[in-house]
TrEMBL record:
Domain of life per record: Eukaryota
Protein's name according to its UniProt entry: Nucleotidyl transferase domain-containing protein
Record-linked Pfam families: GMPPB_C (PF25087), NTP_transferase (PF00483)
Membership in a protein family: Belongs to the transferase hexapeptide repeat family.
Chain ranges of the Mannose-1-phosphate guanyltransferase C-terminal domain: 297-414
Molecular function per GO: nucleotidyltransferase activity
Ranges of residues in domain Nucleotidyl transferase: 10-209
Signal peptide positions (record): none
Native species: Populus deltoides (Eastern poplar)
Record-linked SUPFAM superfamilies: Nucleotide-diphospho-sugar transferases
Length: 415
């Protein structure tokens, strides 16, 4: 164990409005990190996981969003968890490692012995205290959370090879064209402050190369990496790959769930994973119902205290209902996220769908999809203030805000 005097800080990368286009139309209304999964903002899950790290001094959120978009959330979560949470806005893209380095003076204010780095769009059980314990055992500069996936899906991520006995990272390659390994990088790390020296070395080498070499315009066009700014440093290609096999980096494998939240469909899947986790970590957040005075609840369901649900409704599994929603008599909800101020009228059915803020679904209407979370139209998404009139069926479709549907639609994007 580390000494009780050692302090730890956590940095969560939240991205910005320049990214997240795949999350539309939901990201038109709210920054993606604040979109609710299992009734809590996406970024809330890694933040509450950080709370379990021993001797945690501070949590930093780093991104490009305007500070006002995070101000309210940051102050409320700081009060709730009794841990200081601070939002740091990047002036320009610096890369995943460069963004960390850009705020090194602030991050080192508490003289931490270890720095956690997490990506906001990762959904997992975040075994952070266990990672820290393993990292202290390994020594070295950093430990990466890894998971075993299918050989077919591995190439979408950073693949890595580790020593089966020592867990040392031996080889790392980002999204390889040929199969390297079925172990992938989960986007969760713990580092010692030496990481800042490693990032600085990359910047310095790049400056030196730029000064030494006068490349022709043809060569400049051929290589994108040669034109990278000296302060733009990527964690995967610029730090992890070169340091692999040098007894600097190690891996910690999770046997639990892990997903990356790139699309609204994946947010629906991840909401279900977090709801299932609540059964063990936060059972008080899950709804219960016996079908008499309250609605019939099937498996893991979150219902905001201000939502009004008719006793004859049947809800679940994997349903999250946000503030001030109104669920009418006989409604059936399966595998869906219902956002604030939504009204679902009597005998309406919602399956594999996300229903946007202030939307309304009429009597005997159906809003549904096949539930292929990776397909573009695998879940149905209604943007803000969409009205689905009585007896209308919406299947595998995306509807942008402020639309009224009075005829049934299937596999359409309604702009």
């Amino acid at each position: 164990m580390g000494s009780s005097e050692e302090r730890v800080v956590a940095v969560i990368m939240v991205g910005g409005p320049t990214k997240g286009t795949r999350f539309r139309p939901l990201s038109l209304n709210i920054p993606k990190p604040l979109f609710p999964l299992a009734g809590q903002p996406m970024v809330h899950h890694p933040i509450s996981a950080c709370k379990k790290i021993p001797n945690l001094a501070q949590i930093y959120l780093v991104g490009f969003y305007e500070e006002r978009e995070f101000a309210l959330y940051v102050s409320s979560i700081s009060n709730e968890l009794k841990v200081p949470v601070r939002y740091l806005r990047e002036d320009k893209p610096h890369g995943s490692a460069g963004g960390l380095y850009n705020f090194r003076d602030l991050i080192m204010e508490d003289s931490p012995s270890h720095i956690f780095l997490l990506n906001c769009d990762v959904c997992c059980s975040f075994p952070l205290p266990e990672m820290l314990e393993a990292h202290r055992t390994y020594g070295g500069m950093g430990t990466i959370l890894v998971i075993k996936v299918s050989a077919e899906s591995a190439s979408q991520f950073g693949e890595l090879v580790a020593d089966p006995d020592t867990n040392e990272l031996l080889h790392y390659t980002e999204k390889p064209e040929t199969f390297v390994s079925d172990r992938i990088n989960c986007g969760v790390y713990v580092f010692t402050p030496e990481i800042f020296t490693a990032i600085q070395d990359v910047s310095s080498q790049r400056k030196d190369r730029a000064n030494l070499r006068r490349i022709s315009s043809f060569e400049a066009l051929q290589s994108a990496t040669r034109s990278l700014p000296t302060d733009f440093v990527r964690l995967d290609q610029d730090i992890l790959s070169p340091l692999a096999g040098k007894k600097q980096l190690y891996t910690y494998e999770t046997m639990d769930f892990w997903e990356q939240i790139k699309t609204p469909g994946m947010s629906l899947k991840c909401s279900g994973l977090y709801l299932a986790q609540f059964r063990f970590t936060s059972p008080h957040l899950l709804a219960g119902g016996d079908g008499s005075k309250t609605a019939t609840i099937v498996d893991d369901v979150y219902i905001h205290p201000s939502a009004k649900v008719h006793p004859t409704a049947k809800i679940g599994p994997n349903v999250s209902i946000s503030a001030n929603a109104r669920i009418g008599p006989g409604a059936r909800l399966i595998c869906c996220i219902i956002l604030d101020d939504v009204e679902i009228m009597e005998n309406a059915v919602v399956i594999h769908s996300i229903v946007g803020w202030k939307s309304s679904i009429g009597r005997w209407s159906r809003v549904q999809a096949e539930g292929d979370y990776n397909a573009k139209l695998g879940v149905t998404i209604l943007g803000e203030a969409v009205t689905v009139e009585d007896e209308v069926v919406v299947v595998n479709s995306i509807v942008l805000p402020n639309k009224t549907l009075n005829v049934s639609v299937q596999e359409e994007i309604i702009l």
